Amino acid sequence: MEPVPIDGGPLTREQVVAVARDGADVTLTAAALAGVAETRAHIERLADAVEPTYGVSTGFGALAVRHIPVESRAALQRSLIRSHAAGAGPEVEPEVVRALMLLRLRTLATGRTGVRQSTVETLAAVLNAGILPVVHEYGSLGCSGDLAPLSAIALALMGEGQVRVKGQLKPAAEALADEGVTPVELVEKEGLALINGTDGMLGMLVLALRDLRALLDVADLTAAMSVEALLGTDRVFKPELHALRPHPGQAESAARIARFLDGSEIVASHQGPECSRVQDAYSLRCAPQVHGAARDTVGYVETVADRELASAIDNPVVLPDGRVESNGNFHGAPVAYALDFLAIPVADVASMAERRTDRMLDVARSDGLPPFLAHDPGVDSGHMIAQYTQAAVVSELKRLAVPASVDSIPSSAMQEDHVSMGWSAARKLRKAVDGLTTVLAVELLTAARALDLRAPLTPAPATAAAVAALRAHVPGPGPDRHLAPEIAAAEELIRSGALLAAVDRRTP
What we know:
Number of domains: 2
Oligomer: single chain
Largest sheet: 3 strands, antiparallel
Number of strands: 9
CATH superfamily of the largest domain: Fumarase/aspartase (Central domain)
Strand order of the largest sheet: 4-6-7
Structural class: mainly alpha
Shape: elongated
Number of helices: 20
CATH topology of the largest domain: Fumarase C, Chain A, domain 2
Radius of gyration: 27 Å
CATH architecture of the largest domain: Up-down Bundle
């Protein structure tokens, strides 16, 4: 995999995923390093000045009124990192830690933060060495930066704290020594520059966007399978109907569902005049409207993410003319709102999928399918409790859709009297994405079983490919089996991309 160049300019979402999730290395360009060195000269000039400058010769937050003498400034930076590395709770995922490191590195490389070239190079070296500082779940209010998480990164650069290398827990000093990396001795401005960014919430947003794009494609597929299994009509997915309400996401989902149903013998079997059904239930008929609205939400949030990936978040910031100015760009509201926004369609798409699953299990509404798709109803329970699992997850997703960004708690002796809670919004969105994966996995299992039970009628080539991909890991209809491993197998088929890949090969 090619290294991702860090040149001080914007990163793409694809580059973030490549480094954070896929383990790509980074390279610092000569131009970026030159810009960093040029800006550092301005900071060193201010460090020698009589007039105090926030972050250079003063304390921090509510303690910014204190002027720090020259001989205490290195201690000031060390104390800042040690005191702010105050996280608690479980460790966050390796991909989140790598995203944190990458996005802080990108901002440092813009030349707007005033750090030294050597500090930037050390952060890049630690990232490329696969050294992952231990970052805890709690400690960020999403304002003044993701302080505790980013402080854990900075602490490791100093050779302090704990890190993981290939999953093994080590003292940071030992891990850095093993890789020949010299710990950083922070000087004026550097401690603050290392921690004053929205990098954690942004990294988690970018990763969630990648996952949600794929999951919405899966939702279109499982919806098509359910429509087919429930003897629904494909007429409601015709493009001329969706042109009457020209939302782009709706048109895309309708077109995808129609393509997945193309060539279905099951759909064709009930299209004659003998079919008395006038219209399908909303969970079938309105899938494009709900999935499409989710797609359009993702599109909006991608715009927010791209703007953030072109931003230099620090306070104070060094302007091109050398001025050092305080600002509020560290406030995470733009990202926090986007994270909260995404949690709403995640819950709603999952809720609709659960309704389709329940319909396939209900003998009164499933058009001839056995109760709960059981092999011997009464002796066997079929997918009855799989739907309970779905319902439990959907209920949790509804709770996770409650916004975090409205719950500001003042801090730092009321200096930081309004915060974004963007990190919390990001953490709950990650959990919501996992929940949607589980809900779609259960719908996939149930719809595939229902399609098998429609034999000898055959499904469309695309949906048949989905069933075949699942059957490579999960047997077809039969007496009750241990269902938990089958749900896990369906989840992995979705997460890995193998399900969509199998279907794409058969979709016109």
